[in-house]
Write a structure and sequence with these properties.
alpha+beta; 235 residues; two-stranded antiparallel ribbon; Arc Repressor Mutant, subunit A; Chorismate lyase; 2 domains; six-stranded antiparallel β-sheet
Amino acid sequence: MTVKYRSIYQEYVNQIENGVLNPGDSLPSEGKMMKQFHSSRDTIRKAMTLLEQNHYILKMRGKESVVLDRSRYNFPLSKISSFTELAIQQRINVKTTIADLSIIIGEERIMRKLEVDENTEVYRVRRVREIDGERVILDEDYFLRDYVPRLTKEICEGSIYEYLENELKLKIGIAKKIITVRHASREEALLLDLNDEPYIAVVASFTRLTDGTLFQYTESKHRIDKFQFIEFAKR
């Protein structure tokens, strides 16, 4: 016998996959679902949690849940998450290829972003991210060597944040994120297999430690045909 919350879950899965509910549509309130399915609030919440875990909906506290576009991957704006953490959360098959791992000095644009002088040593890490065999993200990370004195290929192929927090004991606090859409350069188009869509979405992040120190600048370049950026504002 099917557990009640799973039958409710499957009912909404069928509606979403068959186009009865489309991306952006809102699900009924918990109260309406309780009446519709003759179920308790706890049962409804279990079904909604399962839908969210499998990336069918986005739950919002105090508001109705919204159907997600499952043809695109979700990129969170309000959290500081590593790519490895996102891959685990969204249950996707990923591969990381290191395109560059080097120490740079004197690159004016980057030094200005990190608010340091031109003689400061900075680690540059360029990584191409594949999801299900497609190259969809080009990450360029810049770390101040004063705070990240050593990086290796092995560390960069895994989770750098796991290394920073568990090995270096850095306490990561807050990040400012800026999103722009622009034409991809020839190199970016080559690395991301861009053909008919010559545009990329660039998420620039300025990440600070809990004491306010800016220690990382990132440009995460996404194929616009593969990602959606979702955030909800409340008045």
